[in-house]
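Milestone 3.1: sequence recovery, worked example.
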């Protein structure tokens, strides 16, 4: 079998944020499969067979004069692709008790050892929002709780919830690759109580949960918060992230409409992760 050929785009961006996040979102819609953020910007990957000269025409931020973005591209074969992930995916440690690592990293001596092969999915713990959501989970009692991880990506948040004693966890993502990758990671971490689904919030219509975790983006959250409220049991908890500190009043207002009350938030580089109670 011949190696799969990928194209690697190197984007240098100014200012770093929110430029990188907007760029990643738009590149994902254009067909890019994977991203690595660095100090200068973003590395973005797409299979050569899916590439065309018109690929970047739909990426609106590249035409926006408020952002300075330079880029170049090169080909990499699958052997080098795997090496690229290994060189860019370093293990992270959260609050001295949880480590998120790849299979090729040395096993640590911590309470919660999560092994993730990120491939092309979001959620390795390196992004501020994922890191803060891991912190929220570590601070909360999940024993015998029913949990929904909405926009689950790699499944890392669902996996930690299961490791903390959740009796059942539904992990849902609209992206097919995330669905496949989360199933692999759930098996890799021996989390038999996690069920992975492909779809949006309508996938869980009629179900009930003690805890809902949603790390997506502001606009989707604003649309879906009423549906989350319908899925929460009495005294349920909702953890939200994927937005900035200045977005909190807007999110709070939507939550107030459905009797979800703000309790606390974490902040990291202007990103926030907020806890609400029902």
């Amino acid at each position: 079998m011949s190696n799969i050929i990928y194209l690697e785009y190197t984007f240098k961006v100014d200012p770093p944020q929110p430029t990188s996040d907007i760029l990643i979102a738009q590149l994902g819609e254009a067909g890019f499969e994977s991203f690595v953020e660095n100090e200068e910007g973003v590395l973005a990957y797409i299979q050569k067979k899916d590439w065309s000269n018109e690929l970047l025409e739909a990426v609106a931020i590249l035409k926006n004069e408020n952002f300075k973005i330079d880029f170049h591209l090169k080909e990499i074969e699958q052997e080098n692709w795997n090496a690229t992930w290994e060189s860019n995916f370093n293990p992270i440690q959260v609050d001295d008790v949880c480590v998120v690592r790849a299979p090729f990293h040395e096993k640590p001596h911590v309470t919660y050892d999560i092994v993730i092969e990120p491939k092309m999915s979001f959620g390795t713990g390196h992004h501020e929002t994922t890191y803060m959501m891991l912190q929220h989970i570590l601070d909360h009692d999940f024993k015998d709780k029913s949990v929904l991880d909405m926009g689950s990506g790699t499944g890392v948040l669902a996996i930690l919830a299961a490791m903390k004693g959740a009796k059942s966890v539904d992990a849902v993502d609209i992206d097919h690759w995330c669905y496949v990758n989360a199933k692999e990671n759930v098996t890799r971490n021996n989390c038999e109580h996690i069920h992975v689904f492909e779809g949006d919030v309508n996938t869980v219509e009629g179900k009930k949960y003690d805890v809902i975790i949603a790390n997506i983006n502001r606009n989707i959250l604003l649309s879906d918060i009423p549906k989350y409220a319908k899925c929460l049991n009495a005294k349920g908890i909702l953890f939200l992230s994927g937005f900035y500190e200045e977005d909190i009043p807007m999110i709070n207002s939507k939550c107030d409409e459905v009797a979800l009350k703000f309790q606390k938030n974490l902040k990291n580089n202007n990103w926030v992760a907020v806890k609400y109670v029902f």
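The longest helix spans residues 218-231. The chain has seven helices and 14 strands.
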